[in-house]
Amino acid sequence: MSQCLLTSNAEAASGLTAKIQPLTLRPRSDAPMMVDLVAAWDGKQPLEGQMRLELSDGHMRLYDYRTSDIVIAPGKQTMRLMLPAVTTTNQQLGVDIRFVGKNGVVDLGRDSFVVISPTERSFLICMSDPWSRPDSPCADIARSLRFERFEPPNDAPVRSVLTPVQHLPPEDLPPSAMGYAPYDIMFVAEEGFSLLKEKQLDAIARWVEAGGSVCAIPAGGGLKPHHIDFLNKLAGQLSPAFVATSDGGVQPVEKLSSTGIGMYRCGLGRAVIAPRMPDADKDLDTPAWRAAVAHLWRVRAAQQKSVVDKGVWLTDQQKDASNDYRYLNPRAGGLRPGSGSGPAAPPAIVMRPRPLNAAVELSSSLSPKAVRLMPFWLLVVILVAFLIAIGPVDYFVLGFLKRRKLTWVTFPAMAVAATVVIMQLSEHYMGGIDYRTRLTIVDLGQDNTVLRETCCEGVFTARQKIVSTELHNALFGPLTDPYRTAYYRPGMRGLDNTPVFTGRIPGGFVVSQRAEQWALRCNRITSLAPTDKSTAPPAPGSTVGKPLALNWSSITWSDLTPRARSVRSKLIGEKEFPGFVGSIFVLNRYDMRSLYSRLPDSNRTYHDSEGPVEPPGGILPGGILREMSVRPQVGLFSIVSQISPNGAANAEDLSLLDPTDANQALLVVIVPKGDDFIAYRRLYYGDGK
Q: What is the band of 316 on the pLDDT scale with cuts at 50, 70, 90?
């Protein structure tokens, strides 16, 4: 009957067609994808329903995406969608499109598009382009921002990384900060800048503060007050750095530099502002412009000289005697100088995304602590008792009563009773309630505002069930271990674990997943504003028994080096709050120091421990936040220290610290909250910028 219903609905909507059109042929690696869903309907009455996209890579289903209820009017219309990131070994992604109306389901066929293989790396630049074509004005400048411009000549048959430029008209730029997650760099110039609305500029600035990069060239006039406010927000100075001119242009209050290019740190991100349009023939291959491009890509200090002076990154840092380049040794558990037994990076740098080595530690930390396994001896006792009951007891008792025919009743009854006892004991030991354990990483700005929040959540259910998570202005993705090649494992243990996204990403949507009984499932939720007010930095004036005041503003660069002994007393006010529970770390160059660590319900406190190993009794294993804060210096991260936020499963975008820069230090404070943890991070600079 369902087949007849599907056929009848297909005939009723035979004039409905739909296809997927990606906005770029090479999307960013491990990032959401922007696509256009183009629907055409030649009927006379509007269609009401929901579009469903089932994505697969030829081997398995990856996820289902379902739009909110929509109305398809007669004619052609386009819906812009953000699809969740996928990791697959197949570069051809298949999409089965269906329309679910009031009368049933209409199959609209199968479409496909190309995604990036896990063995490749692709960046993406978004250019605000009123002409929306590759040969538009300023296109040469946008192409000069590509990362591979610094790749040295080699014998490899293909480039290790590619950075296409996506041209979007100004009116199509997202009005929300999370809408820029598919991109690494935003490029706005001339009309592509002056035509942007205030809400769009606020979204770009918010995204940059959370770790994005923007290159702005406000030439050409036509600027309004919100354009000037945007530039001053990027400059991040106490007093305005740019003012409007009488002809609708902009000029810096003070001379930027001899090059006329301003380079700024804006929160966790980077900004380049050039009031004058560079000459495409003369300026784009100068050291000044190369320095600006390197600034946008967060090139490590150890690579800066080679990139700016020679235009290429170093592939064998130890051959440069003047370069104090070292690498992270994850086996040693911390930051260590290179041993000198070989090059710090291989001659051919492999740019592919790398898994989070600390994923296993993270999964263990997110596992519920109250769950226990049923003792083996108890299982043996139950089994022996069951065998005795159905054997000798049943035989002799029923024989004495001369009712052996009742075995057909007593045997099933005892089997059911044994099953019930085992189930009750299992729930007693393993728990009969669901657990959600969270590690929330809160990144703070220089004014102690929350710039970005990342929630690593472990879901542990007592029964097989569908778990739903409602999100707003956020990205959702799984956290996987280093040995998995795909985000999801549909079909595990005969179950369909394919997640279902319903709504509009990233604005408002619901994620539904099938959770297996007593199996941990780890997810990552990324937002650019606190999802829970309790994770915001505690307000001053708190007392013992309430969230303690963290006096971030009292910490200066001089407090963090060389021994950082004053950090603890200034930050938590030890004299007023002697019962502070948590851990305090400082990461600076190649050292990670644990300044303070105290467990809940413990009177023992650890102070001032130098070296890579956290003292016993720490709140969290030190390797988790260490690797999330400073990635191992191999592959891409032998060249850069950060990337723009993308919410990926491997948490590459959480890296903040450049260990080759002596003018950077990262302060981390971990505070327990019940079974959850909150980790506050703030990056300090010693150069005063």
A: low
| Average confidence (pLDDT) over 113-124 | 86
Task: Assess whether 442 and 426 both reside in one domain.
Answer: no
Same domain, 492 and 610: no
Q: Is the model's pLDDT at 345 over the cut of 70?
A: no
Q: What is the 3-state secondary structure (H, E, C) of 468-523?
A: EEEEECEEEEECCCCCCCCCCCCCHHHCCCCCEEEEECCCEEEEEEEECECCCEEE
**CA dist., res. 28 & res. 25, Å (int):** 10
Buried b (16+ CB within 10 A) or exposed e, 332-354: ebbbbebeeeebbbeeebebebb
Which of 619, 563, 627, 564 lies closest to 332 in space, CA to CA?
627
Domain-located, residue 315 = no
Could you give the CA distance from residue 557 to residue 541 in angstroms, rounded to a whole number? 24
644 shares a domain with 544: yes
Say whether both 664 and 676 belong to one domain. yes
Q: What is the pTM of this model?
A: 0.84
Other C-beta atoms within 10 Å of 203: how many? 21
How many domains, in total, are found in the chain? 5
Residue at which a domain ends, from 272, 291, 310 = 310
Q: Which two tokens stand for residue 364?
A: 């263990």
| Domain presence at residue 143 | yes
**193 inside domain:** yes
Residue 388's region, left for phi above 0, alpha for psi from -120 to 50, else beta, is alpha
pLDDT, tens digit, for every residue of 12-39?
A: 556 899 999 999 988 999 999 999 999 9
Beta strands per DSSP E along 308-422? 327-329, 334-336
Q: Give start and end residues of each alpha helix (H) in 96-197.
A: 139-143, 191-194
Burial of 376 (C-beta count, 10 Å sphere; 0-12/13-18/19+): exposed
Residue 202 DSSP SS3: helix
Domain span at 507: 434-528
Containing 25, the helix (H) or strand (E) segment is none
Domain shared by 150 and 91, yes or no = no
- Edge-first strand order for the sheet with 664-673 is 474-478, 521-527, 450-460, 435-444, 676-685, 664-673, 582-588, 591-598, 605-609
Q: What is the pLDDT of residues 444-474, one digit of tens each?
A: 988 888 899 999 998 888 778 888 899 999 9
SS3 label, residue 280: coil
Same domain? 663 vs 570: yes
| 320 domain-assigned | no
